[in-house]
Amino acid sequence: MADTFRITIAQMNPVVGDIPGNIAKARAAWEAGRDAGADLVALPEMFVTGYNAQDLVMKPAFHAVAMQAVQDLAADCAEGPALAIGGPWAEGAELFNAYLICKGGQIASRMLKHHLPNDTVFDEVRIFDAGPLGGPYSVGNTRVGSPICEDAWYPDVAETLEETGAEFLLIPNGSPYHRNKFEVRLNHIVSRVVETGLPAIYLNMIGGQDDQVFDGGSFALNPGGKLALQLPVFEEVVTHVDLTRTSDGWRVVEGEITAHPGAWEQDYRVMVTALRDYCAKAGFGQVLLGMSGGIDSALTATIAADALGPENVRCVMLPSEYTSPHSLQDAEACATALGCRYDYVPIADTRAAVTSTLAPLFAGTDEGLTEENIQSRIRGLLLMALSNKFGEMLLTTGNKSEVAVGYATIYGDMAGGYNPIKDLYKTRVFETCRWRNANHRDWMKGNAGEVIPERIISKPPSAELREDQKDSDSLPDYPELDALLAILVDGDGSIADCVAAGYDADTARKIERLIYLSEYKRFQSAPGARLTQHAFWLDRRYPIVNRFRDGSAR
């Protein structure tokens, strides 16, 4: 009996719905494994269809094509290593999240996901049927157990596999990023290794899909939980993992352990990756945005330049009479530092025309928020006209603090196709700008150095829709606002919780009211990169019409 086993693991980026393209990537990985003498080539969870395919995977025509594609791939890969690939599998009226083991020209084994996640961005319970607890599959000189993603977060699947003869665990995943997610994954897999006494190889996909980014970071553990291999985050990697049989069973031969960057860098790379892949997978090569001279648009432009290259980013300044001279200077300075195109489109004449048109209907009323919002909606109109004319996707620039309380104009500055900073609180916007000015990486396509002028970071935030306007005129200062939002949104807390944390009850109730009243805006807002477990979209789903108000701490 041979005393070695080689697995080629493919940490790769599929495209949802591109079954031929995903199959081509899988075949290339299999060929790399074949050429390297691998016994098994492994791809992540639901790789055939891409993940998270949501309700698309339930469409019979869709999952039938995916199943046939795997069968055809198995036939193509008959001579060489076994191939393990994730995809849907239908049996009668049931549909499973499956891990399909191809050997000898056919699908020889099927692992069916048992634990179906039903929280945060996942609702697999309504999409898939739960598979039974099963045993391992045979490849060459060993038996392999493959808990599928969520299955590895609970002890029963791994224990059953170990009890029925599995000699090591190969865990395919479609696990999306949230801040500090790697530590969560590692702790769960260490538990499974300790409980079973088996080595484990954790294989995760990479790439952006709508709001989610899969960050890779695949790794291998030996019994006792010792880290034997760690792949980089956010990068496609096809590599070979060797195991050696000892008197105590299989052990992973130690390989490179790639250090992962800190949370600030990972958050930034998620925003860059999310935008890059959203554009690439949706068919957009260029973007544009309204460049106000403020910090949110400056950071969004920087992310766009790093994702797509500055030559593919158009920054448009649309000043009114309330736009300050320093905003004009700062917007142009930032666009120039980034190397992006900068256009100047004043809106005074358009605003005057709209005001004149509405004057007979507005006669006898006071100017106020309506007139301010007209400015924003004119900007949205002009930006969308540029988008339509030149085929550039419009980016929105509202941070999480603004999105939470509705401090944005629907059909105005909310117009657009994607929002890279949607899950980034304002206080983190400031620090992210400082981080980017001080750091440059080879995956950034934008220029190095101070691309966001210091004055943009240090000046008081303002929408500049009226004379001497500041954000603090309408909202608590951002450190206080973000702290309240962390309690009410991220922590699902109460007004009493806010008071216990030292905040004024009336202020907390005001913020709660704004959160609830703004649900209809968020329902119509652009998707954006998910950074936390309480991002606005799939993580947090509230009714639009809602009269509940928290009565605690009165």
The radius of gyration computed from the alpha-carbon positions, rounded to a whole number of angstroms, is 26 Å
CATH superfamily of the largest domain: Carbon-nitrogen hydrolase
Neighbour order of strands in the largest sheet: 5-4-3-2-1-14-15
Give the CATH class of the largest domain. Alpha Beta
Number of helical runs?
17
What share of the residues does DSSP label as strand, in percent? 15-25%
> Largest sheet at a glance?
7 strands, mixed
- Poorly predicted ranges: none
Shape, please?
Answer: elongated
Give the distance, in angstroms, between the N- and C-terminal Cα atoms. Answer: 74 Å
Domains (count): 2
CATH topology term of the largest domain: Nitrilase/N-carbamoyl-D-aminoacid amidohydrolase
**What structural category characterises the helix and strand content?**
alpha/beta
What is the count of β-strands?
19
Percent of residues in helical segments?
Answer: 25-40%
Overall pLDDT metric: 96
What is the CATH-assigned architecture of the largest domain?
A: 4-Layer Sandwich
